[in-house]
Specification:
Layout lengths: L2 H13 L3 H33 L25
Length: 76
């Protein structure tokens, strides 16, 4: 089904509803749009963080402790 077909079917269905039910559909659509925008924003932030070099200095930091520094080894 194409996007245009879905839009036409939705408009046809909304036209058959009373005003208060059509308003509920608009509220739901607003909710879906907001959730989608938040998802896009989150994905963008994740992409920036993963491609950014802000924390690269942590990869160059020397190890302060080794396994030989352990007093007790947990094998739980």
């Amino acid at each position: 089904m194409t996007k245009q077909t879905i839009i036409e079917r939705t408009i046809h269905a909304i036209n058959q509803l009373p005003l208060n039910k059509a308003e509920e559909i608009v509220d739901f659509v607003d909710f879906i749009i907001k959730r989608y925008e938040e998802q896009l924003l989150t994905q963008g932030i994740q992409q920036l963080a993963s491609e950014g070099q802000t924390f690269d200095f942590l990869n160059q930091e020397e190890d302060l402790y080794t396994v030989s520094d352990l007093k007790e080894v947990y094998n739980g």
